[in-house]
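Sequence in, structure out. Go.
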Amino acid sequence: MSKPAEERGRAPILITMGEPAGIGPEVAAKAWHALDGHAGARSLKLVGDRDAFRAACALADDAFWPDDGRIACRKTGNANADAVIGAIDAAVRATRAGDAAAIVTAPINKAMLMKGGFAFAGHTEYLAQLTGAPRAVMMLAGGGLRVVPLTIHIPITEVPRAISRSAILETAEIVLAALARDFSLARPRLAVAGLNPHAGEAGHLGEEEIETIVPAVETLRARGHIVEGPLPADTMFHADARDRYDAALCMYHDQALIPLKTLAFWEGVNVTLGLPIVRTSPDHGTALDIAGRGRADARSMIAAIAMAAAMADARGL
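Output:
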């Protein structure tokens, strides 16, 4: 439920620490400092272990969820798993209770968490389970481009089998609804990429476009959506082409992320669509090799905070 106008913009944005042995606490602390602890009228609160944040920038007194336990930074291990997951859980509880407007998550070490019994592929799947969302969708944004990979972390040989009309329809509907609700686009426009070179070249280079993608696009249009495609992936990301759509639905991971990271490597944002809460994240990993050296670049975290604040404003939180 939307807050009264006089209360909007007051709920804080929570930043979880991520993997304490990585650069998560450092980029969170750097972003907090760069923004002077605020995103517009909203305060920024750090969620996680006091010692992890103290090691990053001595900001322990600003921790939203202090933890009396000690975590050894710059050394991975299963002992970290409970604190990493606990920070996410606490942030979700606070946000669902209306005590916070949005969550910005620092990167987690999925392999380390899985060794500790974590049963999810990453943040997106875990947040869907925590919030009861039937389907969560990953969108990457930056450099004037928004991309959504239909399939994510699977081998390229498995992509054709994972593409279906229902998957395209469900994902596209979530993306279009989010563009309207979270990005204030009254008539969002979606571009859908083909799978094969030249979008299949009328079936000469593959049948997936004819058998699967075209029928899904036609169904979306019949539902009243503005959808274009399937488009050849090699010509849909130049500047003039990007002006014709608000988001691009791509068929596989690299088809979406290569153009996004080419345009906005340091400022890309990962956004989870389809959740009852607002969640963004910097578009990078834990960078264990540079953790603790003060070399981490916080621009992606700063962009993620700004986008979370804008989305919360659009929802009237």
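Check: The CA atoms of residues 203 and 304 lie 40 Å apart. The longest helix spans residues 165-183.
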